[in-house]
């Protein structure tokens, strides 16, 4: 990613004005989104409740757009990118996988198709997007793979067994999460990882000040997330090979160090 982009503070008024001048057609949608989000933040002070309401509103219009894809082609391409990456990194049919923030299975349906029955576990805070996820399972004819799809309010994984998942995956989830949510996830994910397993997550990277836009998009410095993982006894590695893909976010891999 260009260094100039990595230093942009999207919450700064100067950035907003410059962006509006360059993209006048985006002003009205942005004002509408700001009004909706401001109202939802008053109604739901807790972040997860707020973001669930954002997803309900977005998914009612289009589940594919709600997970960030402007067209069906992009939805397919973004799912394929995640799938190909994990396949190149060794994902195999016998693995057990947990997808955090699985959305409407943009990548999930490909994982379900590959993995043995019952080996895919998807969780999301949004019941609306999980209804769309079940539709994706039906449309792809994946009923026999018996994927688990469950709604969650937190990332403690307290209902899941120890040492179970070879791969835990969260794509474009921490880019929508305050640090408290990421902290909770990192505090607990080590327990559910199988020996030798890993947890990959993407994040919106900044090399300038950390910031957020409408409490929908959060920008973090790599070292903040690496330090947070270390505080929970985890090793975090910046995945440089992911940077070669045409995707705006960066990726970190977390593992439990061998004792
Ligand atoms: C941009 S979408 C990406 C969905 C999917 N990972 C993909 O790549 O298609 C983000 C998803 O994460 C979910 N999400 C946001 N915060 C979450 C959290 N704290 N725990 C679980 N899911 C969350 C949202 O409801 C949404 O479905």
Considering the chains and any ligands shown, give keywords for the structure:
Methyltransf_12; Methyltransferase type 12 domain-containing protein; S-adenosyl-L-methionine; alpha/beta; globular; 9-stranded mixed sheet; 259 residues; Rossmann fold; binds S-adenosylmethionine
Secondary-structure blueprint:
Elements: H1 3-6, H2 13-22, H3 27-43, H4 47-61, H5 63-66, H6 72-88, E1 97-100, H7 108-114, E2 120-124, H8 127-139, E3 148-151, E4 165-170, H9 179-192, E5 193-205, E6 211-213, E7 217-220, H10 222-231, E8 235-238, E9 250-255
Parallel strand pairs: 1-2, 1-4, 2-3, 4-5, 5-7
Antiparallel strand pairs: 5-9, 6-7, 8-9
Helix pairs in contact: 3-4, 4-8, 9-10
The chain binds S-adenosylmethionine.
Describe this structure in words.
Residues 98-199 form the Methyltransferase type domain. Keywords: Lipid metabolism, Methyltransferase, S-adenosyl-L-methionine, Transferase. InterPro entries: CFA/CMAS, Methyltransf_12, SAM-dependent_MTases_sf. The chain is an alpha/beta fold and 259 residues long. The protein has one domain (3-255): 3-Layer(aba) Sandwich (Rossmann fold). The chain is 43% helix and 19% strand. The chain is built from 10 helices and 9 strands. It has helices spanning 3-6, 13-22, 27-43, 47-61, 63-66, 72-88, 108-114, 127-139, 179-192, 222-231; strands spanning 97-100, 120-124, 148-151, 165-170, 193-205, 211-213, 217-220, 235-238, 250-255. Strands 1, 2, 3, 4, 5, 6, 7, 8 and 9 form a 9-stranded mixed sheet that branches. β2, α8 and β3 (148-151) form a beta-alpha-beta unit. α3 (27-43) crosses α4 (47-61) and α4 (47-61) crosses α8. The protein is globular and about 50 Å long.
């Amino acid at each position: 990613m260009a260094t100039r982009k990595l230093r942009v503070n999207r919450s700064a008024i100067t950035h907003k004005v410059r962006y509006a001048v360059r993209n006048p057609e985006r002003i009205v949608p942005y004002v509408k989104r700001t009004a909706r989000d401001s109202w939802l933040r008053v109604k739901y002070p807790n972040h997860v409740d707020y973001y669930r309401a954002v997803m309900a509103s977005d998914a009612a219009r289009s589940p594919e757009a709600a997970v960030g894809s402007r067209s069906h082609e992009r939805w397919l391409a973004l799912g394929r990118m995640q799938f190909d990456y994990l396949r190149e990194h060794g994902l195999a049919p016998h693995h057990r996988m947990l997808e955090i923030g699985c959305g409407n299975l943009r990548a999930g349906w490909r994982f379900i198709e590959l993995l043995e029955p019952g080996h895919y576990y998807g969780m999301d805070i949004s019941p609306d997007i999980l209804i769309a996820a079940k539709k994706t399972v039906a449309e792809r004819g994946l009923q026999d793979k018996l994927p688990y799809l469950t709604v969650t309010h937190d990332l403690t994984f307290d209902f899941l067994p120890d040492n179970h998942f070879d791969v835990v995956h969260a794509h474009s989830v921490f880019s929508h999460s305050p640090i408290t949510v990421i902290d909770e996830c990192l505090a607990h994910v080590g327990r559910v990882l199988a020996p030798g397993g890993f947890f990959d997550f993407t994040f919106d990277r900044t090399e300038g000040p950390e910031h957020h836009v409408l409490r929908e998009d959060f920008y973090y410095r790599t070292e903040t997330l690496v330090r947070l993982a270390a505080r929970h006894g985890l090793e975090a590695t910046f995945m440089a090979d992911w940077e070669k893909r045409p995707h705006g976010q960066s990726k970190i891999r977390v593992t439990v160090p061998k004792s």
